Amino acid sequence: MAAYTVIFDACVLYPAPLRDILLQLATANLFRARWTNRIHDEWIRNLLAARLDLTPDQLVRTRALMDRTVPESLIEGFDHLIPTIALPDPDDRHVVAAAVHARADAIVTFNLKDFPAATLARLHLEAIHPDDFINFQIDLDEAKVVVAAQKCRARLKQPPKSAKDYLDTLAACQLPKSATRLRAYESVI
Questions:
Q1: Over the range 35-69, which residues count as b (16 or more CB within 10 Å of their CB) and which as e?
Q2: Which SS3 state, helix, strand or coil, does residue 188 take?
Q3: How big is the CA angle at 63 (ends 151 and 90), to the nearest 5 degrees?
Q4: For the domain bounded by 5-130, which CATH number is listed?
Q5: What's the rounded Cα separation, in Å, for the pair 20 and 152?
Q6: Helix, strand or coil for residue 178?
């Protein structure tokens, strides 16, 4: 199992295309992916509020599949650390507490301002934007990332997407650098 461990913040699990590529990369053993039930609750609550076409049962099924697909992903037993964490938004303390408890290396999040670098450095953590994180994975093992993108696109059936459309979707999910780099492999994605 990969040693580099990351916590996925709820905001990166909310968009399905981003969640899918991150989980596919995790199953490729490029890194160890972790999250908590609170993180699950947050992304599911926000997605249900925004997408009236989705049902709680659908997202509970997704949650269970995530937990089953990524071994040892669910972090528990960190609540006692929450009061010791100081962040601009107190509602984000549970993410850092879980990261500390899990001995994670980084938090993958869009909300970098909510996780100040100086605070995280004292805890031997960093916050990484998902576009930068995926780019790091491309640097580490380009072939595994291309295969992950292939698998994600192949799962899209309703409607199916061309490789170009799939990469456009990733770019629209605030992953412009990753999408640009993967365009070099569009013919095989």
A1: bbebbbebbbeebeeeeeeeeeeebeebbeebeee
A2: coil
A3: 115
A4: 3.40.50.1010
A5: 7
A6: helix
The two structure tokens encoding residue 93: 């303390």
Share of the chain above pLDDT 70, in %: 99
24-37 pLDDT, tens digit each: 999 999 999 999 99
- In this predicted structure, the answer to whether residue 110 has a pLDDT above a threshold of 80 is yes
Distance CA 174, CA 12 (A): 10
Question: What's residue 2's pLDDT?
Answer: 73
Task: Name the residue ranges covered by the structural domains of the chain.
Answer: 5-130, 134-185
Contacts of 7 (CB under 8 A, 6+ apart): 34, 35, 39, 75, 95, 98, 99, 102, 104, 106, 107, 108
Distance of CA 38 to the CA centre of its chain: 15
Contacting residues for 137 by C-beta, under 8 A, at least 6 apart: 25, 30, 31, 144, 145
**Is the dihedral angle over the CA atoms 67, 29, 82, 89 positive or is it negative?**
negative
Q: Which residues contact 93 (CB under 8 A, 6 or more apart)?
A: 82, 83, 85, 86, 87
Residue 1 pLDDT grade (very low, low, confident, very high; cuts 50, 70, 90): low
